[in-house]
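Supplementary Note 3. Input sequence used for the single-chain structure prediction.
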Amino acid sequence: MVFIIYLLIINVVANGQKVNSFTVQQAVDYGKQHSVQVKNALLDILIQKQTNKDITSIALPQISGRAGITDYLDIPITLVPAAFFGGTPGTYSAQKFGTKWNSNAGVSLSQILFDGQVFIALKARNGTVDFQKSMLSVTEDNITSNIYKVYYQLVLSKSQTELIDANMDRLKKLNHDINVMYNNGFIERVDVDKITVQVANLQTEKLKIENMIKNGYSGLKLLMGMPIMDTLILIDKLSDEQIRESILENSQYSYKDRSDYQLMMVTNKLNAYNAHRYKLSQIPTLSIVGDYSKQAQRNQFDFVGKGDWFTSSYIGLQMRFPIFNGFAIKAKIQGAKLQLNKTQNQTEALAISIDKEVAEAKNNFTTAVATMDYQKKNMTLAEKVYDQTKKKYEIGTGSTTEINTAQLDLKTAQTNYITALYDAIIAKIDFLKATGKL
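The predicted structure, written as discrete structure tokens, is reproduced below.
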């Protein structure tokens, strides 16, 4: 036996399978670490940081080196007055000036002292990282909400199968009692067949739910970024007490608690930077430049031996200023301002939308809890009715029609309670998400 268990463990390890027993919070934490959407959002933050380093490099000194060797296969000809060489005045003589081999090496330096656009770009670096972090928060909130909903759907599906099993046990016991009564000639064969049909219907329904649960587990694993072959066990249970637990005691909320609102605020900030950037592009830019170089000229390819290297160097200030660009900058400034106005309007609309979401989510939750309580009482009553009807049937004062009806009413009440329980937990999740407290 020990050897068999050892082989099973080896097989699981070899296939890379893991067994994960998770509460809903552990499932959310796992999803935030392994979900592809979250991973990509984290990579976007790192990419933005690298982009910011690229922007920062513009404000740092720019140093470049150069070196080259030129072989003049034909030395350039220059026309000079022939009188310089004793020739006829007024005429020109073609002369070759220079050497066959030329070599140069140097280094250049430039440093921005002031550039409005670069200044704004440096100022906006933190804002661009904040934007990507806000995108990450939005992604995490969506992942969290979906994991909660699928997790509890699977939990309630398991509860539903347990109720079906309980109903099947009732029917099997009833089926046994009816068969005894049939064998003793107290009832007809059709009464036995009706119970058999109900058992078969429950078995079929259970198979459908079990298949739905299997597919639901695959969907939850995909949502969490978990390998499909791994085993996932859900630890948490769900009760009406958990759903009702102190959710509406503190209904105060702030727009800033919502990740999508934070994203809009950062977007407004970046759009304001963009408009300011175009304004500053009309201001002159100032840079310091410098250069140091060495040059040598030889008739033979010999730059290592004897011979002079001539030095050239300079340092200076460079100012650039726009004069006329066809009103392109003016158009860009106006476009950036309009884009800023647009996102400001979207922010105001989002605030109104959040108020609407919170109000609706609160109403939906209140209604869902009331429905859940009603359906729970109704299910308890249906169980009592079924038990009383069964007792009447067993002592011969009830009919098959009555007990079949009681069984159907009980099953309907159980289904309605499970549905109400799921609607209530969904309403709670939606309320917490709407208030930014999920």
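The chain has one domain: 17-62+114-284+325-434. The domain at 17-62+114-284+325-434 is CATH 1.20.1600.10 (Outer membrane efflux proteins (OEP)).
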